């Protein structure tokens, strides 16, 4: 009986943790600003400066 209670508590804590992780990931993705093409590839497209 004790094992069943501990198992149920463990599953409940894991479920809350997963829900928090997923909701925070979705909130971060929702608030993220999409980068333009030039912002993504600006460093690659700039010619290398040699002295």
Q: What are the defining features of this structure?
A:
51 residues; mainly alpha; 76% helix; 2 helices
Short structural summary:
By secondary structure, this protein is mostly helical. The chain has two helices and no strands.
Residue-averaged pLDDT: 85
Helix content: over 70%
Query: Which H/E pattern describes the elements?
Result: HH
What is the approximate shape? rod-shaped
Alpha-carbon distance between the two ends = 75 Å
Major pleated sheet = none
Structural class: mainly alpha
Q: Which stretches of 5+ consecutive residues score pLDDT under 50?
A: none
How many extended strands?
0
What portion of the residues fall into strands of 2 or more residues?
under 5%
Helical run tally: 2
Computed over alpha carbons, the radius of gyration is 23 Å
Describe this entry's structure for a reader.
The chain is an all-alpha fold. The chain has two helices and no strands. The mean pLDDT is 85.
Mind sketching the topology for me?
Layout: H1 2-31, H2 37-45
